[in-house]
Specification:
Helix content: 25-40%
Order of helices and strands: EHEHEHEHEHEEHEE
Number of helices: 6
Bound molecules: 5-O-phosphono-beta-D-ribofuranosylamine
Structural class: alpha/beta
CATH architecture of the largest domain: 3-Layer(aba) Sandwich
Length: 218
């Protein structure tokens, strides 16, 4: 199966890229990573792509005087490769309005909180500081305002009293690696329809049970 043509932009370790590469290794998976891009030549995730035989490109943002020039060059390369969906995976650059408009409804992101709570950086510490009992991760379409846009999939994890930002991040990351491929699959299968600012899932099983933290009988 050829599948939906993906580009995955990264800036760092690339564990979500790794999860997407693993999913795409299944010939039945309805998407293929055609290109991995990074704004940093040192991004560890680039090696994962190379090992999987996926073309990589480094766009050093420091070589561009304007953000819009950097974004335009990325768009040109991705359009040349007929990319159909951009899956941001720890890409640490703000994107121009023009870029967001160009790729509207064709670009998703993964964020380590239950959006719309805890946007931005250091969100695990922010969740601990706020005393919430659950945090998690969100795959969402990208809009101009950071960490906004129609939500495709979320996973909730408990926040424990002894958690540090690191232990919570680790618990969330395990779920990120499940829901990012799941979201890509849903989109590639045509199951996600954007209506207004909601992503509606067609004909999908949803959990019936509630999660309570702490356990009621604990
Ligand atoms: C993840 O926590 C993701 O949610 C956030 O950036 C981090 C990237 O991690 N957007 P990795 O590079 O995929 O390991």
């Amino acid at each position: 199966m050829a599948g939906l043509r993906l580009c995955v932009p990264i800036s760092g370790r690339g564990s979500n890229l790794g999860a997407l590469i693993a999913a795409c290794a299944d010939p039945q998976f309805p998407a293929r990573i055609e290109l991995v891009i990074s704004n940093k030549a040192s991004a560890a995730g680039l090696a994962l792509a190379e090992r999987a035989g996926i073309p990589t490109r480094v766009f050093d943002h420091r070589a561009y005087s304007k953000r819009s020039d950097f974004d335009r060059e990325m768009t040109r390369v991705m359009e040349d490769m007929q990319i159909e969906l951009i899956c941001l995976a720890g890409f640490m650059r703000l994107l121009s309005d023009e870029f967001c408009d160009h790729w509207r409804d064709r670009m998703i992101n993964i964020h380590p909180s239950l959006l719309p709570s805890f946007k931005g950086l250091d969100v695990q510490q922010a969740a601990i500081d706020a005393g919430v009992r659950f945090s998690g991760c969100t795959v969402h379409y990208v809009r101009k305002e950071m960490d906004t846009g129609p939500i495709v999939v979320q996973a909730a994890v408990p926040v424990r009293t002894a958690d540090t930002a690191e232990t919570l991040a680790q618990r969330i990351l395990v779920e990120e690696h499940k829901i990012y491929p799941q979201a890509v699959r849903l989109i590639a299968e045509g199951q996600v329809h954007i209506r207004g600012e909601r992503a509606i899932l067609i004909d999908h099983k949803m959990p019936a049970n509630a999660l309570i933290n702490p356990l009621p009988n604990g």
